[in-house]
Amino acid sequence: MDTINKVASSLSPISVPSSPPSLSSPTSTTPPPPYQSSPSLPSPAAVPPPPVVLSPCAACKILRRRCAEKCVLAPYFPPTEPYKFTIAHRVFGASNIIKFLQELPESQRADAVSSMVYEANARLRDPVYGCAGAICQLQKQVSELQAQLAKAQAEIVNMQLHQTNLVALICMEMTQCQETIQQQQQYMDTSCFLDENSLGTSWEPIWT
User: Fold this and answer.
1) CA pair distance 185, 69, nearest whole angstrom
2) How confident is the model at residue 42 (pLDDT cuts 50, 70, 90)?
3) Half-sphere exposure of 155 (CA within 13 A, CB side)
4) By the 8 A CB rule, do 97 and 73 touch?
5) For residue 100, what are the contacts with CB-CB under 8 A and spacing of at least 6?
6) Distance between CA atoms of 205 and 75, rounded to whole angstroms?
7) 0.85 exceeded by pTM
8) pLDDT per residue over 119-138, tens digit each?
């Protein structure tokens, strides 16, 4: 019995709130944490450009090898013009082309490549004479044109002489005509004077 009383006395009465908490009031007085914005993305200007992937030159692409950074053939055989290296390689060979370019200064390499491509084209068109045949044909055309030019110049000189002779002849004829007209006028004046004198002498016996 004593034990039951001790347990009952140890239990504290439960306090019941007089009014229930209002729903409109916040459950806690702690302010909400500030809004944390997400980390800003880098601007487009700050984004590094993608690495430029250079395609191999036409020579290295045809030879199926890696195009080095300082490739001798790259500046003169771009990937957009593969036919240039194909023609030159067919006639001269890649090793000879590289050797030629390495022996020349950079200021003359572009002209050398153009000459090699032209000569290779001529060699493919004319395997016997090649570029020499084209040069001979052009020289023949130049000689023919020079002969035609000389002939035309001679004809021009002849026409100028003929024109000068015609002008001189016309001037001579005009001078002769003027002299003839003057002589006729003088003759007419003289004849009139003679007629007047003859008339005067014919009337003299009548008045005497």
Assistant:
1) 103
2) very low
3) 6
4) yes
5) 92, 112, 116
6) 125
7) no
8) 999 998 888 888 888 889 99
